[in-house]
Amino acid sequence: MFFTKKFLAMAMVSLATAGSHAWGHQANDSWLNFAFTNGTVAGQWDLNVSDLDTALGLDDNDDGTVSEEELQAHNDAILAFVLPHLQVKTDGVERKVDVTGHKLEKHLNGVYVGLLFRLGEQSTLPQTLQVTCDLFYDLNPKFLNRLSLEANGQQRTMNLTIDAPRQTFELSRPKLASQFFGFVREGVWHIWSGFDHILFLLALLLPSVLWRERRAQSDRPYLGTGWQPVGEFRKALLNVLKVVTAFTVAHSITLSLATLGVVQLPSRLTESAIAASVVIAAANNIFPLFTRREWMVAFGFGLIHGFGFASGLSDMGITRENLAVTVLGFNLGVEAGQLAIVSAFLPVAYALRVSWVYPRIVLAGGSCAIVLVAAVWLVERAFNLKLIPF
Fold it and tell me: Stretch 53-71: mean pLDDT, rounded?
């Protein structure tokens, strides 16, 4: 029994501090967009400047940034490096990718170089599009080449990974269902790769299997004391459902408003506020700031996180025509990702709650680790710095 509890404790601490061992807000990625118009296939391939600098050494003066002049000076080297990693076929015939220009783009994950390209005209609209891309997989196995396709008034998205670097689209029979589930996948991936969202959720979930004793104002318990285990699983489950439901409703509101363009916030302000919410939520487990109605805290900060989700969604270049399907699919994907985290967390936490290990090591130690990581994120985002690699 002791071994089981010790093992569970190690698992919970690992889960609670997962953000300190992973990539940042999103895995490194590129954005590969195709659009079919009047027989012409045009597109844009957005490549992260820092990724290109790591591979090619673009920062000639070693000042820590890559200027537009340095990008222009290395234009031929960039094309020679990236184009061999991209293969495009229509109806089974390989097509040459002609780069017609470039521009700088701002994504949630940094500054990107957008390579404008076209495949040339065809007498008829192709029936199939096959894209193969293995860029950067040798340098980072977790790298994502995100693929977006607009054709026949519909948009579809897919992720090209090291295990699945090729995707084929049927252009003649666009299906609303495939578009919908494509955005569901994007939502799941966004929550699983958004470690600030995960740590915020964990900070709220950690005390769900405990209840806090009321103490005299003069009492100053040390970390991990003042907590008692809940008596039954049903109560813990209700605590979790209240928190997750409040968070879901809140971020759904701001996600929809931001995507519709009703409310917009600067990305830097949004990301800083998200980091601050993680700090406050985790600090509340150590020094009680909100001792009742945690679901209200989840709702309030969920409104902020919704703007973060909207930023990730806007990077996909969604159109008005597919707005409803996009928002619904993406939001359901986010919820599915959250429920997977809760399903993995709650049984383990409930089994471990009666041991002194949970309140003192998992709850207090995990919360301290979350505060530390999120505080660094807050400084980075507020002052536009890069202090840690995740």
Answer: 88
